[in-house]
Amino acid sequence: MSGRETNPAIVALGGGHGLYATLTAVRRLTRKITAVVTVSDDGGSSGRLRAELGMLPPGDLRMALAALAEETDGIWARTVQHRFGGTGALAGHSVGNLILAGLTEELGDPVAALDEAGRILRITGRVLPMSPLALTIEADVAGLEADPRVSRCIRGQVAVATTPGKVRRVRLIPSDPPACPEATSAIEHADVVVLGPGSWFTSVIPHVLVPELHDALVYTRGRKILVLNLAAEPGETAGFSAERHLHVLSQHAPDFTVDDIVVDSGSVPEGREREHVARAAEQLRARVTFADVAEAGTDRHHPGKLAAALDQVIRQPRPELAGLRSEGRRMGQHVRSGLGGKERVSWR
C-alpha cells in the first residue's frame, strides 16, 4: 500500500450527529481530515444566532470541531459542547456556538473563525462550511393535503426534518449558492471522500445541490464512499428502505456516482432486500459492502466498527466500473458480505 493510502487525505461531508460519527471513525485512520459541514440549520441555538447575527448556523460546525478535538473528553471539548440551562437569554445556547459567533465577528470570516477554534481545540484536520452563506432548505412534501397526489412546499430545515408528510424533493435557497473554496479544493485533492450518514434530505443531499461542490464531487479522483443510515428517521425519511435512500440521492444528482456504499449488515437482511440495495447501487455505479457498523441496540454507528469497515473498503482495489464511467458502460456489481468473503450479484 502506498504512503497516500497509509495516511490518506479524507474529506467527510455531512452534518449533525451523522458527521460526528464519521469524523470519530476516520480520525482512527488518518490525520489528514477535512470536514465539510451543512449550513442550513434554523432551529435552537443555531437558528437564534443565525437570525440575530446573520452568521452561519454554528451548531453542526461546533460538533465537527468537537469530534476532531485532540482530547474529545478534555475540558475544552466538553466546554464547547456545554449547553446553558435556565430560562434566561442564554438558555439553550451552546458555549461553542457563542465562541464561534464571537470569533466570526472579531475576525470577519467564518473560515478564519473555525481555524482559530480548531487551534484552541488542537483538532486533527480542518472544519469548513459547505458554503460561506447560510442556506435555507425547501421541500416538496406529499401527504399533507386531502389529495395525496398534491405536494405542499415546506421551508426550513427543522420544518422539513419534522414534517408528518413524505418528502419528495428538496431545494436550496438560494438555488445556486457559492461553495466554500477551501472545501472544493479539499475534495479535488482528496484520496477518499465520505458522504453520510446523517439526515438524508437536510444533511446529506444538500452537498450535491451546491453547484461547485457538486462538480468537485463528480470530478474528484478520490475514492468516493457513501455510508447509509442505520434506520429511517421519523418525519424526514419515515418508511424509507435502504434502497429508497439511494434512489432519492440519484434523483437529486443523476450524474453523481460513488465507488463504494457501506451498509450495516444488521439493517438489511440477507436475500431479496440486499439484492434490491445492490440494484439501486447501480444508479450510483457503486459496489456495496455489508458490514456490522452499528452500536449494539441503537441506530447509531459505532466509531470503531465504522473505522474498520472504511479501512477495509479503502484497502480494496477500486471497483472495475470506476474506470468505465466515462464510457457509460454497465456491468455486474459485487456485493460484499461483512469484511471478508463476497457474493456476486448480477442484474444486467
Give the key terms.
single chain; 348 residues; alpha/beta; Rossmann fold; 9-stranded mixed beta sheet; 14 helices; globular; disordered C terminus; CofD
What does it look like?
The chain is an alpha/beta fold and 348 residues long. Helix content is 37%, strand content 18%. Helix 2 runs parallel beside helix 4 and helix 12 (242-252) packs parallel to helix 13.
State the end-to-end CA separation. Answer: 33 Å
Helix content class: 25-40%
Domains counted in the coordinates: how many? Answer: 2
Count of helical segments? Answer: 14
Question: What's the shape?
Answer: globular
- Give the CATH level 1 class of the largest domain: Alpha Beta
Function: Required for morphogenesis under gluconeogenic growth conditions.
Organism: Nocardia otitidiscaviarum
Subcellular location: Cytoplasm
Family: Belongs to the gluconeogenesis factor family.
Give a quick summary of the entry.
The chain is α/β, with parallel strands linked by helices and 348 residues long. It has helices spanning 3-6, 16-26, 44-53, 59-67, 75-81, 95-107, 110-121, 157-161, 181-188, 200-204, 211-219, 242-252, 272-283, 303-315; strands at 10-14, 33-37, 126-129, 136-142, 151-155, 166-173, 192-195, 223-227, 260-264, 287-291, 333-337, 342-345. 37% of the residues lie in helices and 18% in strands.
